[in-house]
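Batch manifest, entry 17 of 40.
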Amino acid sequence: TMATKGLTMTIIDTNFELPASGDDGSVAEDADMKILSSYLEADTAAWKAQKAAIAKAVLEAAHTSGISGEALLQSDLAEGATIPSQFNPFKECNIVVRCEVPPVDVDGAAIETQLAPLRSQPMWSREAEALAKKEIELGLVVMRYKVGLHYSIEASLGAAKCGSFVARAMSALNNAPAPTSPLSVPTMPFTYMLRLCL
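Output type: structure tokens
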């Protein structure tokens, strides 16, 4: 949870999107799960930093769009609620950020060229090759983001203000100032959904 000028942002949870499988779906899914597990074990610090950077960017976008904690509370109470439950972070999320790892747009031969010398390493395995290939692919792409709001926010604040908020949030997320920013560099091997509560 983080806060700024009367607004609080809480990270609720995340859900990963594994690639669609073909005829050998169970085998492919098992391999993808092994890759994901390896990243979760090895790169948790980088992933936590990325999630925090996303939440901070969305929180700042909300503030610069004129959204305030008081406005959220007043709108909730104006609709007849007796307690400010609508935006309780322990009950539900009201913002979802799709954190997309885009497909690699490069000739497979270029990746094969980088993989070839690695195969002479001791204890090389199919799992090691899958991880190495994924690492190479991630180094060739930049994260992309989409922001979605729960209907409760738009109902309370109005389409115009929410539209400004989403536009600011997506601009901040997709136009990170440095290519090495936590927002730009993929830290996980697959696209994931980050659920937040404002």
